[in-house]
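Need residues for this backbone.
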């Protein structure tokens, strides 16, 4: 039987008046961390006199704060028969082509339909590393929900530790392709801006806080068409939302990425295009040394049909030469 969420009502006394909402809740509910409280606020699970407020809201005497605390997830993940495209597989590692719209592992109230559930169905509980714990078997890195492409998976604890070390030493090459709004200045470049949590919108990251973590993205232009730029981007650090944040910071957000400034409606020439329904960001390639055999592997994930088709449509609407469109796409199909 599925456990239900716990609902707690708290009255604000004079002694607590003026406290930030998140600090008030942490003081009243010591079992919850401030980060957890802020996440519940962002999810709309906290109301003050029936109204959702920001974590920075100052509570007043006589207000009633109601918080809904979801039941904790089960201690593991149930396998689900979700199809996965396997790009490479041996006894130690695997590389899968993650589709857009799929979360890598459970979290933030989402416990089903994850890559982990699909991996458990494909390889079984004993066919994945356990280093990441019961909610993240085999997972050594992540891709955003709306990002598709090559995802590296560890099948043994030994290979997991080896891959973690390669990531730490930045010996794993990750190449993405993205379609951006606007014309990026220059034919190639490097973005080095710190990435940190956006204090105003907790679901976002930002490059505007000096205390953020160092991040570097290298890029080169593949093709410019009608107010859009098709680029290849290489990650030298793996910060949350890094590519999306970096290109948004220079005024060229990823197509479809409304969280970071992309318009909800796309236009190419005079044509109004239908919503893409995802971010135009794809992890096209991952190259690394096998953690056990030391063989150098270079794995390519083909561009999904919806991205190739959208690019072709933009090209036609913008009057671009079909040969140029085909040449730009060919290397990623």
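Answer:
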């Amino acid at each position: 039987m599925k456990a239900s969420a716990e609902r707690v009502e708290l009255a604000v006394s004079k002694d607590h008046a003026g406290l930030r909402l998140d600090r008030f809740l942490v003081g009243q509910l010591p079992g919850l961390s401030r980060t957890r409280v802020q996440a519940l606020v962002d999810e709309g699970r906290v109301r003050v006199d029936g109204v959702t407020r920001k974590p920075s809201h100052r509570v007043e005497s006589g207000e009633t704060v109601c918080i809904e605390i979801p039941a904790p997830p089960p201690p593991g993940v149930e396998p689900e028969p979700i199809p996965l495209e396997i790009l490479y597989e041996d006894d130690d590692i695997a590389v899968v082509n993650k589709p857009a719209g799929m979360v890598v592992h459970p979290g933030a109230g989402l416990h089903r339909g994850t890559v982990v559930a699909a991996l458990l169905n494909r390889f079984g509980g004993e066919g994945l590393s356990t280093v990441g714990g019961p909610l993240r078997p085999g997972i050594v890195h992540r891709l955003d929900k709306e990002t598709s492409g090559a995802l590296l998976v560890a099948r043994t604890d030994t290979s997991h530790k080896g891959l973690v070390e390669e990531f730490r030493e930045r010996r794993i090459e990750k190449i993405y392709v993205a379609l951006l709004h606007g014309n990026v200045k220059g034919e190639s470049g490097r973005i080095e801006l710190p990435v940190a949590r956006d204090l105003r919108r907790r679901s976002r990251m930002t490059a505007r806080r000096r205390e953020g973590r160092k991040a570097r993205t290298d890029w080169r232009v593949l093709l410019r068409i009608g107010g859009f730029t098709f680029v290849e981007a290489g990650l030298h650090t793996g910060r949350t939302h890094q590519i999306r944040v970096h290109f948004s910071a220079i005024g060229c957000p990823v197509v479809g990425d409304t969280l970071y400034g992309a318009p909800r409606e796309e236009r190419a020439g005079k044509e109004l295009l239908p919503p893409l329904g995802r971010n135009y960001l794809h992890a096209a390639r991952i190259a690394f040394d096998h953690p056990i055999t030391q063989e150098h592997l270079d794995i390519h994930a083909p561009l999904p049909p919806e991205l190739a088709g959208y690019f072709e449509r933009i090209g036609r609407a913008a009057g671009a030469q079909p040969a140029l469109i085909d040449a730009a796409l060919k290397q990623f199909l």
